[in-house]
Amino acid sequence: MTKGYGLATKAAAQELLDLGKGVSFSVAVRKGRLVGSSGYVQTRLASVALRDRDLIVRIVSFLDINQPRAAAERLAEERG
User: Fold this and answer.
1) Separation CA 17–CA 77 (nearest Å)
2) Is the dihedral of CA 54, 60, 63, 64 positive or negative?
3) Residue 48 parent element (H or E)
4) 2-78 adopts what CATH topology?
């Protein structure tokens, strides 16, 4: 649990996929609350990363999980 700016948060990778051809897809879950509060907020974030020779050259993140997964799979096929 990370604390700062009056927030307590925890993040975990839910899914990590190497789709080949320098394309990766991931889903992370972050759960947080205001310090001293009993209520929590949770978000899921999908990210598509492009690599060139083991260097990440672009990362794009989305709140919608399904659309970026399909886009990442198409991109990996196109880069083939």
Assistant:
1) 14
2) negative
3) strand 41-52
4) Nuclear Transport Factor 2; Chain: A, (3.10.450)
Question: Taking the domains of the chain in order of start, what are their residue ranges?
Answer: 2-78
Neighbouring C-beta atoms of residue 60, cutoff 10 Å: 12
Q: Decide: 44 and 65 in contact? Cβ < 8 Å.
A: yes
> pTM to 2 decimals?
0.76
User: pLDDT truncated to tens, each residue of the chain (80 aa)?
Assistant: 665 567 788 899 999 999 999 999 999 999 988 888 888 889 999 999 999 988 999 999 998 888 888 889 998 999 87
Amino acid at 38: S
C-alpha dist (Å) from residue 8 to 34, 42, 43? 6, 12, 14
